[in-house]
Write a structure and sequence with these properties.
about 260 residues; alpha/beta; Metallo-beta-lactamase, Chain A; seven-stranded mixed beta sheet
């Protein structure tokens, strides 16, 4: 079951050591209860994300990670698909240990062998302690031009849902808009969605419009763009984020290596 979003409160968004926002009033007004769970998320290069909670460190699609991250070993590594801008064995080796749980699409057999991993297909779920990791669909529909997609549905690649104490994070990998997003409507607290330019979709604007449709369908509480160049990010924020019709979602304009901290209640 995906959790309700109503009890999740963003604490801070940090770029370096700069606090952008600290909306704490709602926390102060709540009655005494169990201590909240603090979830830290860091936006890494390209589509990379690092999540830390209760001493557990999860990496998703780590790429070009700094050398000092060898001091931040992974408890879990999630790989969405085998494209080289998402699956980098050399980066994985820098953070991998004998105790790391490596999860990737089931058809990535060489990666599974190399990292003693677990293969998943859309719909599969794995528990790591109290954290529920669910594989979801990842594909792009065939292009209207007739060109074949580089992300075929038949590959059974996987985006990921990560549920922590009722707080749900979605990492889309390379997904733009897919009709299966209707299954996620209203269930996601933080969605990492890619805003890369896909020439198969036509000009840049036609690459970005499907993300607008995805946001309107999923209706996450927060969207954090991934897989961007700085110009693409600024174009999306200034010209396309305003097209999002739902008023539920906040879209954060964050550079790589920004840290976000959330609490569940």
């Amino acid at each position: 079951m995906l959790g309700s979003r109503n009890s999740k409160i963003p604490l801070v968004v940090v770029v370096g050591a700069i606090v952008i926002s600290v909306p704490l009033l709602m926390m102060m007004m709540q009655p005494a209860q169990e201590p909240p769970t603090e979830i830290t998320m860091k936006l890494l290069n390209n589509a990379g994300v690092m999540i830390e909670v209760d001493g557990v460190r999860i990496y998703i699609d780590p790429l070009y990670i700094p050398s000092n991250y060898t001091e931040l070993p992974a408890d879990v590594i999630l790989i969405t698909h085998d494209h080289t801008d998402h699956y980098s064995p050399s980066d994985i080796e820098d953070i991998f240990t004998n105790d790391t749980l490596f999860i990737c699409p089931a058809n990535m057999t060489q990666a599974i062998d190399r990292f003693n991993g677990t293969g998943v297909n859309p719909g599969d779920s794995i528990m790591f302690g109290d954290i529920n990791i669910t594989a979801f669909y990842l594909y792009l529909p065939d292009y209207s031009s007739g060109l074949p997609t580089f992300h075929p549905r038949a590959a059974n690649w996987t985006s990921f849902l990560i549920e922590i104490d009722g707080f749900t994070i979605y990492h889309a990998g390379d997904n733009k808009y897919i009709p299966e997003y209707e299954e996620l409507t209203g269930t996601i607290d933080v969605a990492f969605l890619p805003i890369y330019f896909d020439p198969g979709l036509g000009p840049l604007n036609e690459s970005l419009l499907p993300i607008v449709d995805a946001i309107d369908m999923i209706q996450p509480r927060v969207v954090i763009p991934t897989h961007f160049t700085d110009p693409n990010r600024e174009i999306f924020m200034t010209e396309y984020s305003i097209l999002v019709e739902n008023t539920i979602t906040e879209i954060l304009n964050l550079p790589y290596f920004t840290t976000m901290v959330y609490e569940t209640t």
